[in-house]
Specification:
The protein is an alpha+beta fold. The protein is built from 24 helices and 21 strands. The chain binds 2-(butylsulfanyl)adenosine.
Length: 689
């Protein structure tokens, strides 16, 4: 964006003109079309640059500058509504110093007096709405527009269930302001529906990039039917006008009153007395940014005393009695250098963006996921594009979409590669599935993936065999499958640069030691489809030897408690493969444990062959921990109660269906103390049977 990025131009008048033109374009995209081209943070930066230039060069200031204007022009498709009280914007503070500077400016205006308390609220990321009630009936809903004249969206506002249509005990005239927003869960569901509908119609889905624009686009519809299908929500944050009833003294009193009339007030709103407390609260709210089902991009601090608010007044754009503390941006723009495909440990081919490194969401991001082929197509991002990158909280960075106005000429849509970038064999995508896979069992990436999983802590727990060593050994041709670990040529390894005698001895001992791992760990390590840790332990305890598992029919397998036909077929199918059987043969020859060895266990097999079901939260065991304790004693712990269940253990909040079933089948229902006794002795405490 030549005109957007900081210009080399030392001519302030030229830069001011450039910035005004760019900002006018972005205002139209954001407010006019609900489809901003750039992240809010980039917009804020341009606006701040213009504000600074106008402050340094007062001769360049102008009433029509974007720095003096609120929002965008109202759309002529809606009837204009002249606001009784102008709908203003808020001044921003981007750090604690700017927050402090706002407070100091205010004190100077008050000749040194300090406000006694502040209301601190979330800056909700939606769009502002003004609601007018006459005689308790909602008569008008209007958008902010340019602050003076907004758009009449009454028909759409009426479809939002959070907004009262009729109020009891209302004054003759009441005007309330607040934010219409879309919950994150509703936004996700909405975009998923867009994809499903587009796929069904054989069209390209039109995805919305964030809940804010979806909310704005949904409210500014000609047809209320469209709005009604969008699941919008509302929080009120201001009483703007009341006639025929006493005016509240404080803003916080006004919100409490509005709450009592039936308006939703955000639960994280509070009042505080010092700026010190305000700063601490800002930090606290920042920490909650990803815990809520809606987005907020800042914290609004307001002087609570309404008389003091009037005394402070406003400038052309925003009140002096409030400030929006903007949280660090989680979206920014950067160049998409290329799109590559990475192959995961089980062969999944995931497209990802290689980016010009950019600081966003608190870290420098150089790559970002593009999820799958459909997502790249839906977003239509192309190498060379300027793209919006988002990193929210601990979530992996993702590319939101391209900045179309910045697209280089002659670019073409990206095409998913036909072959695996690791082994060169064709990639495959199952009909109806989103994922593309490398299906070559011998693909080096998959070999590495299988070995890393096998050696992992929850499987064979082979210390000193980290990802780097696996990579090295696979590349050197020393291992092709997990059985090769037990035939490693340690002399060759000793010749490798990163190894010394001690490290080789450690590795050899760790591999040797892994031979004694229980059968359940070995089964889990083989990465059989549908077989996680719990199912692996169930297979071991149900069949006791690897040989019996290998020879089990799908019917035998389906009889394992908690297994169904899908798991049974997956296991049977895996063991039916001659290559798998040969692998097991090699592992057995190497001396790995191929049966359940109870005598080696540190615990007694008190529950051999019996099944104990656990439901609810126990104080002394995690969910998996309770299962493991049962399995370690030779028992089974399926997910549901049947007539062969020995007992149902209940913790806090147990599942009602399990308890009902146990009672119907006269299965003993025991508490945690009785469970501990059962584990130790294999017997149910007296009176529980
Ligand atoms: S008070 C005169 N409180 O922020 C002050 N605004 O940039 C009126 N917003 O148009 C606004 N959460 O859409 C206020 N708790 C909150 C808010 C909030 C979000 C939005 C609102 C407003 C914009 C100003």
């Amino acid at each position: 964006m030549a005109s957007d990025s900081a210009s080399d131009s030392t001519d302030p008048a030229r830069r001011v003109a450039e910035l005004r033109a760019a900002l006018a374009r972005h205002v139209e995209a954001y407010y006019g079309r609900d489809r901003p081209e750039i992240p809010d943070a980039d917009y804020d930066r341009l606006l701040r640059e213009l504000e600074d230039l106008e402050a340094a060069h007062p001769e360049l200031a102008s009433d029509s500058s974007p720095t003096q204007r609120i929002g965008g022009a109202p759309n002529a498709a809606f009837s204009p509504v002249t606001h009784t009280v102008p709908m203003m914007s808020l001044h921003n503070a981007f750090d604690v110093e700017e927050l402090q500077a706002w407070y100091e400016r205010m004190r100077r205006r008050l000749d040194g007096r300090a406000p006694e308390s502040f209301a601190v609220e979330l800056k909700l990321d939606g769009l502002a709405i003004s609601l007018r009630y006459e005689g308790g009936t909602l008569v008008q809903g209007a958008t902010r527009g340019d602050g003076r004249v907004g758009e009449d969206v009454t028909h759409n506002v009426r479809t939002i269930s959070d907004i009262p249509k009729q109020i009891d005990n209302a004054p003759p005239v009441l005007e309330v302001r607040g934010e219409v927003y879309m919950k994150l869960s509703s936004f996700k569901a909405f975009n998923e529906l867009q994809i499903a509908q587009a796929q069904a119609a054989g069209k390209k889905p039109k995805l919305y990039v964030n809940p804010r624009n979806t909310a704005a686009g949904s409210l500014r519809q000609i047809s209320a039917k469209v709005t009604a299908g969008r699941d919008l929500s509302f929080f009120c944050y201001q009483l703007s006008l009341v006639e025929g009833a006493p005016e509240p003294v404080n803003h916080s009193d006004a919100l409490t009153w509005l709450g009592s009339l039936g308006f939703p007030v955000n639960e994280h709103t509070c009042t505080l007395t010092t700026m010190h407390e305000v700063e601490a609260r800002v930090e606290e709210l920042d920490g909650m940014r990803h815990d809520l089902d809606y987005e907020f991009d800042g914290v609004v601090v307001k002087v609570d005393d309404l008389d003091l608010q009037s005394e402070l007044g406003a400038d052309a754009k925003a009140p002096r009695w409030a400030v929006a503390y903007k949280l660090p941006p989680e979206e920014c723009t950067t160049k998409l250098l290329d799109i590559s495909v990475s192959i995961g440990p089980s062969g999944q081919a995931t497209p990802f963006a290689q980016l010009e490194p950019v600081f966003v969401g608190g870290v420098t991001v150089g790559t970002a996921t593009l999820h799958n082929e459909d997502q790249v197509a839906a977003k239509d991002v192309r190498p060379g594009d300027t793209v919006i990158v988002r990193r929210a909280g601990d979530v992996i960075p993702e590319v939101v979409g391209p900045v179309l106005s910045e697209r280089p000429e002659g670019s073409a849509p990206w095409v998913f590669p036909k072959d695996c970038p690791v082994c060169g064999q064709p990639l495959a995508r199952d009909e109806g599935a989103a994922a593309t896979n490398c299906v070559n069992f011998g693909c080096p990436r998959q070999i590495r993936g299988r070995i890393e999983h096998f050696a992992g802590r929850t499987a064979m727990d082979i210390e000193f065999l980290g990802e780097k060593n696996v990579d090295l050994f696979v590349s050197a041709g020393l291992i092709e499958d997990v059985s090769d670990l037990y035939r490693l040529d340690f002399d060759r390894i000793l010749e490798m640069p990163r190894f010394q005698k001690k490290s080789v001895d450690n590795l050899r001992a760790a591999i040797e030691h892994s031979k004694t791992r229980p059968l359940g760990n070995l089964i889990f390590g083989l990465r059989i489809p549908e077989v996680g840790q719990v199912n692996a332990a169930l297979l071991a305890s149900s069949f006791q030897t690897m040989e019996r598992i290998m020879d089990a029919s799908a019917q035998d397998l389906a009889a394992v408690e908690g297994f169904g036909p899908v798991i049974a077929e997956a296991v049977q199918g895996w063991f039916a493969n001659p290559q798998a059987r040969e692998l097991i043969g090699r592992l057995a020859d190497a001396g790995l444990t191929m049966e359940v060895v109870l005598s080696d266990s540190t615990v007694e097999p008190t529950l051999a062959g019996v099944s104990v079901v656990v439901s609810g939260t126990l104080a002394g065991f995690s969910r998996d921990g309770a299962k493991e304790a049962i399995l370690a004693r030779g028992g089974k712990s399926p997910g549901s109660v049947s007539k062969s269940t020995l007992a149902l253990v209940v913790g806090a909040d147990p599942g009602a269906s399990k308890v009902n079933k146990a009672e119907a089948l006269a299965i003993p229902v025991i508490d945690e103390d009785a469970f501990v006794e059962l584990l130790e002795t294999g017997a149910l405490p007296e009176g529980s049977a």
